[in-house]
Specification:
By secondary structure, this protein is of the alpha/beta class. The chain has helices at residues 12-21, 63-77, 80-83, 128-133, 141-156, 187-196, and strands at 24-30, 52-58, 86-89, 96-100, 107-116, 119-126. Helices cover 31% and strands 21% of the residues. Helix 2 crosses helix 5 (141-156). Bound molecules: zinc ion.
């Protein structure tokens, strides 16, 4: 299931074409989100009301994958100077988590959410097996794992898929044959998060 924040998106046709031949990078699943505010070009109400929060790396995973997921978190923390984002990884109790798991066909990452914006709960799932086994994957497993985690956490930071921009962004769908996998949020992404929080 793919749920978008709504609104007309000029890029939709290109997006569907890309999806048809590659993967659905991500789905946002959860309760219906209210209409977004003034910045509907990128705003996802399903995100967290704050960009300072803790999450758990949940379930079992080996140290290599734990490192990949941590890299995805760190990539957002690297935007602190411009966005103020601080995502801590805790072993304690929290209603926000990132885990590995199997996802439906064509999907390598998913952001599931609940609660309200002021008390957001979410589970990000990254499909390690599908990333590792993608026949048309050119960039490394680690690059894709980091990018996928970063993209899903972009939703937690109130960014929607395929924003209405021609700027490079980690929130676009990308084919697994893509060679330029981003290692960090782009200027557009940083600017968007900075304007929300
Ligand atoms: Zn997405």
């Amino acid at each position: 299931m793919i749920q978008r924040a709504g609104g007309h998106r000029p890029g939709a046709r290109r997006t569907r074409a890309a999806l048809a031949m590659t993967v659905v990078l991500l789905a946002v699943v959860g309760l219906a989100a209210p209409a977004s505010g003034a910045r509907s070009d990128y705003y996802l109400a399903a995100g967290s009301g704050t960009n300072v929060f803790s999450l758990r790396l949940a379930g079992s995973m080996n140290s290599t994958w734990r490192g990949f997921l941590r890299d995805g978190v760190s990539a957002w923390n690297g935007t602190y100077s411009s966005t103020g984002t601080v995502i801590s990884i805790t072993s304690g109790s929290t209603n926000k988590s990132v885990r590995l798991g199997s996802l439906p066909s064509g999907m390598i990452g998913r952001y599931q959410y609940g609660g309200s914006r002021s008390d957001r709960t979410f589970v990000v799932t990254v499909d390690a097996e599908k990333i590792a086994d993608a026949p048309n994957r050119i960039s490394s497993i680690g690059s894709w794992a980091r990018f996928t985690t970063m993209h899903e956490l972009g939703h937690a930071l109130s960014l929607k898929d395929n924003p209405d921009t021609s700027s490079s962004t980690v929130m676009d769908y990308k084919p697994m044959s893509w060679t330029g996998v981003y290692s960090a949020p782009r200027a557009y992404d940083r600017s968007a998060v900075a304007s929300i929080y």
